[in-house]
Amino acid sequence: EVTKDKFGIDQVLLRNTRGASVRVSLHGGQVRSWRNERGEELLFTSSKANLKPPNPVRGGIPICFPQFGNRGTLEQHGFARNRIWVIDDNPPPLHPNESNSKTFIDLLLKPYEDDLKIWPHSFEFRLRVALTAEGNLTMISRVRNINCKPFSFSIAYHTYFSISDISEVRIEGLETLDYLDNLCKRERFTEQGDALTFEFEVDRVYLSSSDVVAVFDHEKKRTFIIKKEGLPDVVVWNPWEKKAKALADFGDEEYKQMLCVDGAAIEKPITLKPGEEWKGRLELAVVPSS
Ligand code: BG6
């Protein structure tokens, strides 16, 4: 089902037979909503988000591409999240191991003329957003080099999880990993052995994590499971009180209700030779927990 938002931009609604749903906007190829079969929203969007293109939208799952953060010459987090993507009406068939995700849409991004002035690399980014029979959200990205010279990029699925309260959540799967701390000039530290809990601003890139990371929410009694392939790094971000106040498109208290945990490839950018394709896969599930 395709509808238009108030700026005339198409949004695609995917729904499975149990009533779970995903809504993705052509603005940024950004997932804006993911609901379970009870209709509960699982992603955070700020009440102050600016939904008008080409602004980045604070919430859902913006895609940071071809640059993460300010690690390069492009605008913060690259341009993909601000561009208008198109629907591919004739997508390639599902791979046999995707047969559980019959509800899907393929979106495409190719560089606009102005993009080539700031990033002179022809690429095609195919994003397949799918909803499984169980209500899991999967995002499969294929980036192809259609140029005659190699290029490198970084990518992150900047996932804003909706949580009960930041003091009630913990992340498992990042223990003992090295991370780069964006709040300390990207200095490298090593995480200790405990699950991660939150008491202050966190802005880190955990390096080479295992392919499963879990976010436990005690109060809501639910756990988000993040499964990833081709995405070695994990970004963890919560702006906390002071930064929240400084962000124009974010409510002062909203940092309590969100936590960004992104599957990403940042530390070692991905290089594609002419004609080569990179594939990355993220699957998000939510399960009850005690
Ligand atoms: C995080 C970055 O991933 O995204 C932070 O590490 C940044 O430094 C945050 O503040 C939000 O970025 P933006 O551009 O969406 O405000």
From TrEMBL:
Membrane-crossing residue ranges in chain numbering: none
Source organism per UniProt: Tripterygium wilfordii
Keywords: Isomerase
UniProt GO MF annotations: carbohydrate binding; glucose-6-phosphate 1-epimerase activity
GO CC term, one of those recorded: cytoplasm
Top-level taxonomic group: Eukaryota
Coiled coil: none
Binding site for substrate: 58, 76, 81
Catalytic activity, reaction form: alpha-D-glucose 6-phosphate = beta-D-glucose 6-phosphate
EC numbers: 5.1.3.15
GO biological process: carbohydrate metabolic process
Entry-linked PANTHER family: APOSPORY-ASSOCIATED PROTEIN C-RELATED, GLUCOSE-6-PHOSPHATE 1-EPIMERASE
Class of enzymatic activity (EC top level): isomerase
Pfam short name (any one): Aldose_epim
Family, as annotated: Belongs to the glucose-6-phosphate 1-epimerase family.
Name of the featured protein: glucose-6-phosphate 1-epimerase
